[in-house]
Specification:
Blueprint: H1 3-27, H2 43-50, H3 55-59, E1 65-77, E2 80-86, E3 91-97, H4 98-101, H5 103-108, E4 118-127, E5 133-144, H6 160-165, H7 167-173, H8 175-196, E6 201-202, E7 208-209, E8 221-224, E9 229-233, H9 238-246, E10 251-259, E11 271-280, H10 284-303, E12 307-310, E13 313-316, E14 322-325, H11 326-332, H12 338-342, H13 344-353, H14 364-375, E15 384-387, E16 409-414, E17 417-424, H15 429-444, H16 455-463, E18 468-474, H17 475-483
Parallel strand pairs: 3-5, 6-10, 14-15
Antiparallel strand pairs: 1-2, 1-4, 2-3, 4-5, 7-9, 8-9, 10-11, 11-18, 12-13, 15-16, 16-17, 17-18
Helix pairs in contact: 7-8, 8-10, 8-17, 9-16, 13-14, 15-16
Length: 504
């Protein structure tokens, strides 16, 4: 029998034993899933308030505490037992004594509790000889019986996929996972407050759309039975948010779920979270300043510093950040000469030499973007704004006034990956329609990520959209950065995984 089979057999045996205990409890009239215990205190505030109090003062403290949590460790010494319980806020040791709990309860019930069981405890505080703050229990109740053993601290969490697949177990036994998702919540809350204080209105736009738009991506397709119509899960909320600018809302944002039918990697999950915001009477340069302010203040709030570790690097988010035009980045960081990236055939051959495909009929801007992805992006460790992207790859961006072959657009790169995409919005319905038509041609030529024609959006622009700047920021990647997480799966509670393989 191999080691994996032996482990599975041992686990099955433990589950069987726990189920037998649960059945015996029920036969003896002991509820294994009651809803009668009422917790009164969180563990962390107790520890923080009383951990530094001398033992003598604790003994004179005329106060009982009522806590609840999961048993994480348990050591029995006959008539006394020490165990640790953990709630959402922290962990504390509990001292259970046979004479305090009652001999019959202690021997027949309490001694049959397992690691993983959720219990309620009432008692007073004292310190052990080693100085550990401990609750002396005068009452212990079973709140929820656990039928499965928790993974061993050092052996049961090596399977990374198991951590993502059974996130509920990961959160129980892995403090870092809990910290990441608490910090994620803090990040989103900070962003909301930041935008609210600047006069932005939070809105909600459709997640099922008759025409997907706002990004270059392959959508998921679904069907509405009652209307007998094909719908798409949104790839971005952009075109709906800009309709709101037409309607008179001058500053709007949405923290939204997007869906893109693309590959899965350490940086991509088909379902992900984006912040998108739009600001009338602003341009892409104003958004650069706003983005620097948001990221630097967020890092200070969440991490305590604008200099944060990420992998082997220290990222400095202190403004101002580096700024390079798209073509400057190809030259200064990609080490390309203008004749190498400006000539279509030369650029195409260089992309192929670097191992990337070029689709027949792709425009020069798309080929240049592939050169950027291969030669520039991985080197952008410190914050860099790359601006003035080719019009070919920016179908919703406003053309630059001096050079219509480029757009007033920037992307933000940190730690070798894109963190934000922003531009001065295209509000010319004639230009927008022409660009949509170009996208339709590319889609017909085989580009599954090209934009659809959206006649209603053109109609909205014909009513008049004020000049504006808009930006999208990937929340998942931002959380990765601020929690020093190498994979997007670390920061999404339930990432998409392949179907589970049945155990033999």
């Amino acid at each position: 029998m191999n080691k994996e089979s032996q482990t599975q057999q041992d686990e099955n045996r433990l589950i069987r034993q726990r189920k037998e205990k649960a059945l015996k409890f029920q036969q003896d009239g002991i509820a294994i899933y009651p809803n009668t215990f009422r917790k009164q205190d969180d563990i962390k505030p107790i520890v923080e308030k009383y951990k530094d109090l001398p033992a003598e003062e604790l003994e004179n403290l005329d106060k009982s505490f009522v806590v609840a949590g999961r048993i994480m460790a348990l050591r029995s010494f006959g008539r006394v037992t020490f165990f640790h319980i953990q709630d959402h806020s922290g962990k504390i040791q509990v001292y259970a004594q046979r004479d305090l709990l009652g001999k019959e309860f202690y021997n027949q019930v309490f001694k049959k509790f397992d690691i993983g069981d959720i219990v309620g405890v009432k008692g007073t505080l004292f310190k052990t000889q080693t100085g550990e703050l401990t609750i002396k229990a005068d009452k212990v109740e079973l709140v929820t019986k656990s039928l499965r053993p928790l993974p061993e601290k050092y052996h049961g969490l090596k399977d990374v996929e198991l951590r993502y697949r059974q996130r509920y177990v990961d959160l129980i036994v892995n403090p870092r996972s809990r910290e990441i998702f608490i910090k994620r919540s803090q990040i989103v809350r900070f962003i909301r407050n930041f935008l609210d204080q600047r006069g932005f209105l939070e809105v909600e736009t459709p997640m099922m759309q008759p025409i997907p738009g706002g990004a270059t991506a392959k959508p998921f397709i679904t069907h509405h039975n009652a209307l007998d119509m094909q719908l798409y899960l949104r790839i971005a909320p952009e075109l709906y948010l800009k309709r709101l600018l037409v309607g008179g809302f001058e500053r709007v944002y949405e923290i939204n779920r997007n869906f893109r039918n693309e590959g899965i990697s350490t940086q991509h999950n088909p379902e992900f979270t984006m912040l998108e915001f739009y600001m009338a009477y602003a341009d892409f340069k104003m958004l650069m300043e706003l983005t620097e302010e948001l990221f630097s203040k967020l890092a200070l709030e969440v991490c305590g510093s604008m200099k944060i570790p990420y992998g082997e690097h220290e990222i400095d988010l202190t403004p101002p950040w580096n700024k390079l035009s798209f073509y400057e980045s190809l030259e200064k960081i990609g080490n390309l000469k203008p004749e190498e990236y400006q000539n279509y055939e030369t650029a195409k051959e260089l992309v192929k030499k670097l191992g990337e495909k070029v689709i027949e009929g792709e425009k020069l801007g798309k080929v240049q973007a592939k050169l950027f992805d291969l030669l520039v992006e991985p080197k952008l460790i410190q914050p860099h704004f790359i601006y003035h992207y080719p019009t070919d790859i920016s179908p919703l961006s406003r053309r630059n006034e001096q050079d219509p072959t480029i757009t007033d657009r920037f992307e933000l790169f940190i730690a070798g990956r894109e963190m934000a995409n922003a531009f001065s919005e295209l509000n010319d319905p004639f230009d927008q329609k022409e660009r949509f038509l170009e996208q339709v041609k590319e889609k017909e030529a085989g580009d599954e990520e090209a934009h659809f024609m959206d006649e209603d959006y053109i109609r909205a622009l014909e009513y008049g959209m004020p000049p504006a700047g808009g930006e999208g920021i990937g929340i998942d990647r931002l959380v990765m950065l601020l929690t020093n997480s190498p994979s997007i799966r670390e920061v999404i509670l339930f990432p998409l995984l392949r179907p589970e393989t049945p155990s033999s």
